[in-house]
Amino acid sequence: MNAPVRVALVGTGNIARIHAEALRGLGDRVDLVAGVDVDGVQARSFCQTHGIPHAGTDLGRTLAATRPDLVHVCTPPGAHLDAARIALAHGAHVLIEKPPTLTLRQFTELETAANHSGRHVATVFQHRFGSGARRLRSMYEAGVLGRPLLALCHTTWFRPQEYFDVPWRGRWDTEGGGPTMGHGIHQMDLLLAILGDWTQVSAVARRQARDVDTEDLSLAHVTFADGAVASVVNSVLSPREESYLRFDFARATIELTHLYGYGEDAWRVTPAPGHEEAVLSAWHGGERGEPSGHRAQFAAVLDALAAGERPPVTLAEARRTMRLVAAIYASAFSGHPVGPGDLGPGSPFHERMQGGGPPWRLIPRQEVA
Question: Which stretches make up the GFO/IDH/MocA-like oxidoreductase domain (predicted)?
Answer without folding.
Answer: 134-246
